[in-house]
Amino acid sequence: PAFSPDGKEVAYLEERVSLKVVNLDTKAARMIYEAQANYSYSDGDQYYQWSPDSKWFLLNFNRDQQWIPEAGLIKASGKEPIINLTNSGYSDFTPKWAMNGEMMIWFSDRDGMKNHGSWGASGDVYGMFFTQEAYDKFILSKEDFALLKEEEKEDKKEEDDKDDKEEEEIVVKVDLDGIDDRKLRLTQHSSLLNDAVLSDDGEKLYYLAEYEDGYDLWMTKPREKETKLLTKVGPQANSLFLDKDNKNVFVQGGGKIFKIDTESGKKTPLKTQGEMMFDPAGERAYIFDHTWRQVQKKFYVEDLHGVDWDFYYAEYARFLPHISNNHEFAEMLSELLGELNASHTGCRYRENDPNGDETASFGLFYDENYTGGGLRVAEVMTKGPLDNADSKVVPGVIIEKVNGVAIAANANYFSHFNRIKDKNTLLSLHNPANGQRWEEVIKPISMGAEYGLLYDRWVDLMRDKVEEMSDGRLGYV
Known about the structure:
By secondary structure, the chain is of the alpha+beta class. It has helices spanning 132-138, 142-160, 280-298, 309-317, 326-338, 447-469, and strands spanning 2-3, 9-14, 18-23, 29-33, 48-50, 56-62, 69-75, 83-84, 92-98, 103-108, 124-129, 183-185, 192-198, 205-211, 214-221, 226-234, 239-242, 248-253, 256-261, 267-270, 360-361, 364-366, 375-380, 398-402, 405-406, 425-431, 436-442, 445-446. Strand 24 and strand 25 (405-406) form a beta hairpin.
């Protein structure tokens, strides 16, 4: 839920996707946007934002029931349809009011790397202006803008001399005529963006972009086309907020909050302290109920494939008091969801312990029938750590030691692979075919990276299989 800026109303989502508003005085609720085209795929994936004058909403919606988000505008009265502001065919998302409602900024992948293979897309920050006056002012050169500021300073001085001056009320003006021509790309380079904020005067744009080892905070001056790195933030950075005077930007991510000076880029962590009573069994019971309800509301057919969902609630809920960890709980939830006999259903648990075990990979297949000391190589994975011009590792070679520690016969060898990902690792090797012994230094990869090698290997094998079985008459995709 979100309070309107005037404090008179609250906006909220009904049934996860329909935007409604309740008046705090009358308690009357009205529908703003009944989102037949929207679908909530995960918690918190719907977006809307009040205008500064509490008369409008910016929001995301899916056009024509497609999985392509558009940025929309709709009146808070609930009496008019949504207006598609972007109409691009690309992903346009998270529109934000800026410059007291004179414009909006939003994110789009129209100019960056495209998401053709579901590997993600790079994006840019764009601006759209709701009046021609705001647009004309924004695109002035640095020199012309300075002249305009002098004129406005003189006008303000005359206004301040009057005795009857009143505080100006914010009123958002929206002129849709020609609005497609009043938009600009504000960032100078596409990147993996997480969030952005524009200063109140529109002169500086701050944004989080992922590079190398984490997220960086960048600043660009749209009028001068000047971009610079303010500071490196870290591996996690989710959202940005400017303070009232635009002197500091606050970055939230990874359970921490940083204050960053908008001029110097100095980063100061804000100390927070809090405690909560953690009830693991109660949390699992809540997630169980939440999952069961979501299936009822969101499954693609109302009869749930003929499954008696009430019956299975009782059947599986009885196991809850006996489950002591989240791995077991995820397995139980997967069993429950499996009763639907549907694809894309299940539950996973990924433990996030920075000090926990992490098994690395050498990018090798091992001969599991070998019973001697060490590990006998059965295959070297293409593009793995040992697939290079300098390595002499081939099938039949035996890895005798890892970092000087011998691998015992028939032992669980995975303990030798713990916490060595991306670290220089010494392998002591023996080739029984020629009796040679030698050492090589490699940097092991993660198990996730190994999975990618295995997938590429599978693709190659299937392509060869199709070629062979069809005698070259079929292509493989």
